[in-house]
Design a protein that fits this description.
Elements: H1 12-28, H2 36-42, E1 51-56, H3 63-66, E2 74-79, H4 86-97, E3 103-109, H5 113-120, H6 127-140, H7 146-163, H8 165-170, E4 173-179, E5 186-188
Parallel strand pairs: 1-2, 1-3, 3-4
Antiparallel strand pairs: 4-5
Length: 190
């Protein structure tokens, strides 16, 4: 896709296609050949990621793996339920303004416990965990099932990211996606 890991990618559509191609390799069990030692050395002094991925903290949701990416190619933000607060938005501002990433992808996933508990309005949770669910609930109101709620949550987060002045002013492309653990497929929702 680019000459070196430090060659900037400024076209969001090319960045999105690189993620789709990487997911295809992952699904087919044909990952790209990587040289982690060389990549680590090449990026030791800087980074030029071409995409920002906001996804769940679930241990099975590793975008570097399911998008088959090398060190330094994607800027990853994770939390339970893949929502965006000022912390995540500030990190995205840094990755776009300073590092030049032209794309943000918000990835929900199959069986998300945070979304499921927000949907069920699970009582008696510790305060910090209840606060996590409070960030998710507005985006899933009216959802009938977990898949619908997961997609609605990702789409609501996309709206939040798009409303951020720095992201909007730069014309950053922001899309929602859904990761299926069983198949390995990332489906883009936009």
């Amino acid at each position: 896709m680019r000459e070196t890991l430090l060659t900037p990618v400024t076209d969001a559509n090319l960045a999105l296609q690189a993620l789709k191609d990487g997911n295809k390799r992952f699904v087919e069990g044909k990952p790209s050949v990587k040289d982690d030692v060389a990549d680590r050395k090449a990026t030791a002094g800087g980074q030029k990621p071409y995409a920002i991925i906001l996804t769940c903290a679930d241990s099975r949701c590793s975008p570097e793996i399911y998008f088959d990416q090398r060190i330094g190619e994607i800027f990853v933000l994770r939390n339970a339920g893949n929502f965006a607060t000022d912390v995540e938005l500030g990190s995205m501002e840094f990755a776009t303004l300073v590092l030049g990433a032209p794309l943000v992808v918000v990835v929900g996933h199959a069986g998300c416990g945070a979304v499921d508990n927000a949907l069920k309005n699970t009582p008696g949770l510790p305060p910090a965990l209840a606060g996590v669910l409070d960030n998710i609930k507005p985006g899933i109101a009216g959802s009938a099932d977990l898949r619908t709620a997961t997609d609605a949550n990702a789409k609501k987060v996309v709206e939040t990211v798009k409303a951020n002045k720095a992201i909007k002013d730069q014309g950053i492309k922001v899309v929602a996606a859904y990761y299926d653990f069983e198949t390995g497929v990332v489906s883009f929702l936009d």
